[in-house]
Design a protein that fits this description.
3 domains, heme, DosC_2nd, 460 residues, 69% helix, Globin-like, diguanylate cyclase activity, nucleotide binding, alpha/beta, nucleotidyltransferase, single chain
């Protein structure tokens, strides 16, 4: 995958260079000489247009446009239209970074395409008004500007597509897994359903039940579950295809025997052997797929049983969209166990793990069921409080801080110790990129550490 993406980037870079070389120096000069007022007008028209779009307004607001995005778009236009004088490899890298951000935010590609179309249209109008210039020169500048914008956006997409596909897979897994309270329970239920079908089939064949009353595996409780739910639950298309083929083999073997050869004992015996052997393969693949699901896809940190960071993008994007559409705030907090390394060094990793589990339980039990608690990594936790403002959040986390400080964690029968936490809080500020909010909460956490630990700081 990485090699394929690199190959695409190299090809795109070569084509960008060819486009630059094919365009006359006069056309390049014309685009580079567009004045600040002209480019600023393009940016202004672009954002006025996009802010009118309901879908786009989920990712934009007028304050953001005024504070950050207008300047970013101005520099993007200046660098892309003037790419003949730029380092194309560096310019390509910048486009891919933008693509990663678009992927993280979840900006639909049709919005990017619509915005590009508006920019190209307005640039065409701007250049067409320059009546004192040769028409062929204007035409060449228009062609180059249109193609170079397409090239830049394609460069963004090379980074966007893999991240977007991964995000969509994680989003779907999170949605499906949230349906199942316990994957282990589902595993036993479906293995049981498969065994029930096999036992019932053996009994029906042995007792000479009429063929029309024998239920095919595809139509059984297990078969219906697999085709309607199981295929969407598991990852690994090769194993899914193999499992589907095995189910079809079982049913084809049954169809080939009934009703013509049902009276032949030898054929019936061979049928039972074949079906048992095929069902054994189905069982084996199903077990391995559930094992992988439990191991990698259950979304829970095995030590603390909190959500792991894999689903942070899915949940953050969803909460940001809700906050923007409803106008309701939310809080992100980063929490760190103070001097955790010393706990591991002094008491051992087993006691360190006990400390993590104890504190994670306190945090989880101190927030609402609507909130989210993640094991962020190491001794760090991330908490998302929905519909909460900073002053209220500060009281909640200070209460958690006091609860933790009051714990008496026992390393051995004779040895016990206390522990403290520090936390940084950031309130959602309508920026659609969740990574910026994480960085603000992390900055506040750093401040809490710098100010002596065992305290809460709010990002300002």
């Amino acid at each position: 995958m990485h090699t394929e993406q690199s190959d695409n980037s190299e090809l795109l870079l070569a084509e960008w260079q060819e486009l630059v070389n094919l365009t006359s120096s006069d056309a390049h000069e014309l685009l580079r000489d567009l004045c600040e007022e002209e480019l600023s007008q393009l940016v202004s028209v672009f954002y006025d247009y996009m802010l009118q779009d309901k879908k786009a307004s989920l990712y934009l607001n007028t304050q953001q446009v005024a504070d950050q995005l207008s300047e970013s778009m101005y520099h993007w236009l200046r660098s892309v239209l003037g790419s003949a004088k730029e380092s194309l490899s560096a310019l390509m890298e910048r486009q891919q970074k933008v693509g990663v951000i678009h992927s993280r935010i979840g900006i639909p590609t049709d919005l990017v395409a619509r915005g590009a179309r508006k920019l190209k249209n307005e640039l065409f109008r701007l250049l067409s008004r320059k009546k004192n210039l040769d028409a062929a020169l204007i035409n060449q500048a228009v062609c180059f500007s249109s193609l170079v914008m397409d090239t830049a956006i394609e460069a963004m997409t090379t980074a966007y597509s893999p991240g977007y596909k991964s995000a969509m897979r994680d989003q779907e897994r999170y949605r499906i897994l949230s349906i199942y309270d316990d994957v282990n329970v589902e595993r036993e239920r479906q293995l049981g359903a498969l065994m029930n079908w096999e036992n019932q089939f053996i009994y029906n064949v042995a007792t000479g039940l009429p063929s029309e009353e024998i239920i095919l595996l595809e139509k059984s409780e297990f078969g219906l579950w697999f085709f309607h739910k199981g295929r969407h639950l598991f990852n690994g298309p090769d194993l899914l295809r193999k499992l589907e083929a095995l189910i079809q083999q079982v049913d084809n073997r049954v169809r080939d025997t009934f009703p013509r050869h049902v009276e032949d004992t030898a054929i019936r015996t061979q049928l039972l052997r074949d079906v048992r052997q095929l069902i054994g393969q189905v069982n084996s693949i199903l077990c391995s797929m559930f094992d992988e699901l439990i191991k990698f896809e259950n979304g829970k940190d095995p030590l603390t049983n909190l959500l792991n960071r894999r689903f942070i993008p899915t949940i953050m994007r969803r909460e940001i969209a809700l906050a923007i559409s409803s106008g309701k705030p939310f809080i992100l907090a980063m929490i760190d166990i103070d001097h955790f390394k010393q706990i591991n060094d002094n008491y051992g990793h087993e006691t360190g793990n006990l400390t993590l589990k104890t504190i994670s339980t306190k945090i989880y039990e101190s927030v609402r069921s609507s909130d989210y608690v993640f094991r962020y990594g190491g001794e760090e936790f991330m908490v998302l409080l929905v519909e909460t403002q900073a002053p209220q959040a500060a009281m909640i986390f200070d209460s958690i801080r006091q609860l933790v400080a009051g714990l008496n964690i026992r390393a051995t029968e004779e040895r016990a110790f206390s522990v403290t936490i520090s936390a940084g809080i950031a309130e959602f500020d309508n920026h659609p990129d969740y990574q910026q909010l994480i960085e603000k909460a992390d900055s506040a956490l750093y401040q809490a550490k710098a100010n002596g630990r065992n305290r809460i700081e709010i990002f300002h």
